[in-house]
Design goal:
By secondary structure, this protein is an alpha/beta fold. Helix content is 32%, strand content 20%. It contains 13 helices and 13 strands. The radius of gyration is 20 Å and the shape is globular. The chain binds NADPH dihydro-nicotinamide-adenine-dinucleotide phosphate and N-acetyl-L-glutamyl 5-phosphate. Residues 3-141 form the Semialdehyde dehydrogenase NAD-binding domain. One of its GO terms (molecular function) is N-acetyl-gamma-glutamyl-phosphate reductase activity.
Length: 347
């Protein structure tokens, strides 16, 4: 059994980790932390977990976590960075669902996250947790900086086009037009997340620059070895869960001569969680809701030189807690889908 701890158990991704881990056959939950709820039974706060999760919140300290084999940080940026070294040095593996260990350039991290990076050596060691792209490194990692939600959808949408050998697209004019449900903003109350603000509304945000942009471009460069230029526009949709990424690329001559459907199907043939849907399909967020699946479809409208890739994930599962458990499974030599076989909840 893997002894697991969760720092940040009162938030959306922390409680989603609980939902998944409660039924994981190889996990023993040792600790779950909250600064404000110490001693309170988790199931009292989350009645959905009653009769399955019998543990109380503890302090987010080393003392609470020292008997774990692996600790998930489902916390805001900066929290994992402050505790990771102590845990890793004690032989405890760490998966950060936040962004502390994603951007490899510390100046870039400081620019986008507004805080200096206190662990540059660990940052260098950390493995970027987009498993379908970095599986072997994740398996042996002591510390994983899990890919962000939008970056997961966009990178998986583009990966087959970037690893086909010769470039197939103009890699400097990629457009990622992404829509997310409100749970992406976390459980903390902000005005924009209020029902009266977000419902019956649809808006773009951070158009001039979102912190996932450098992560997407860094991730695509790690995949292809070449620099890309992405225009990334996130939108907030009045739904609870889900991301739909609509990615536009300009095909070059080689790309226009390629059977894109066959390319995608071949590329992802062995990926348990990536489903390339039949030609002409239109993936919807309800096709993945509550599951760790990514559903993709590639279109070439009117046979012209623009390809449109649609990718949908559940931001809380493949975009966070599910991908984190997938990483844990890989790190401990378990089948990646163990505990992650939930089918999407529909309608
Ligand atoms: N929501 C999403 O779709 C996604 C979120 N993420 C990332 O996952 C992380 C968590 O997100 P989310 O669950 O949405 O956030 P929430 O705001 O819902 O929850 C944050 C959690 O962190 C805990 N926390 C806050 N500050 C500290 C601290 N200083 N020390 C210890 N614990 C702390 C809080 O617990 P308490 O106050 O009780 O201590 C709470 O449980 C973030 O980094 C986010 O960017 C990643 C992908 C997708
Ligand atoms: C709808 C919404 O607000 N989404 C969040 C992104 C989700 C998030 O915080 O995720 P990462 O940990 O992957 O950065 C945002 O745009 O800030």
């Amino acid at each position: 059994m893997i002894k697991v701890g969760i720092v940040g158990g009162t938030g959306y991704t922390g409680s989603e980790l609980l939902r998944i881990l409660a039924l994981h056959p190889q996990v023993e939950l040792k600790a779950i932390t909250s600064r404000g709820e110490v001693g309170q039974a988790v199931a009292d706060m989350f009645p959905a977990l009653r009769k399955r999760v019998n543990i109380a919140f503890s302090e987010p300290t080393f003392e609470s976590l020292k008997n774990c084999d692996l600790v998930f940080f489902a916390t805001p940026h900066g929290v994992c960075m402050a505790q990771a070294a102590e845990l890793v040095n004690a032989g405890i593996r760490v998966v950060d669902l936040g962004a502390d260990f994603r951007l490899k350039n510390t100046a870039e991290f400081e620019h986008w996250y507004g805080m200096p990076h206190s662990e540059p050596a660990l940052l260098e060691e950390a493995v970027y947790g987009l498993i379908e792209a970095h599986r072997n490194a994740v398996r042996t990692a002591r510390l994983v900086g899990l890919a962000g939600c939008y970056p997961t959808s966009v990178q998986l949408a583009l990966k087959p086009l970037l690893t086909a050998g010769a470039p197939l697209i103009d890699e400097t004019t990629i457009i990622a037009d992404c829509k997310s449900g409100v749970s992406g903003a976390g459980r903390k109350a902000t005005v924009g997340s209020l029902f009266s603000e977000a419902s019956e509304n649809f808006k773009a945000y951070s158009v001039s620059g979102h912190r996932h942009l450098p992560e997407i471009e860094q991730g695509l460069e790690m995949i292809s070895g070449r620099k890309t230029h992405v225009t990334f526009t996130p939108h907030l949709v009045p739904m609870v869960r889900g991301i739909l990424a609509t990615v536009y690329v300009k095909l070059n001559d080689a790309g226009q001569a390629t059977d894109l459907q066959a390319l995608y199907e071949g590329h992802y043939r062995d990926e348990y969680f990536v489903d390339v849907m039949p030609k002409g399909s239109l993936p919807e967020t309800k096709h993945v809701r509550g599951s760790n699946f990514v559903r993709l479809a590639i279109h070439r409208p009117q046979g012209r030189d623009t390809a449109v890739i649609l990718a949908t994930i559940d931001n809380l599962v493949k975009g966070a807690a599910g991908q984190a458990v997938q990483a844990m499974n890989a790190m401990f030599g378990l089948p990646e889908h163990l505990g992650l076989e939930q089918l999407p909840l529909a309608p």
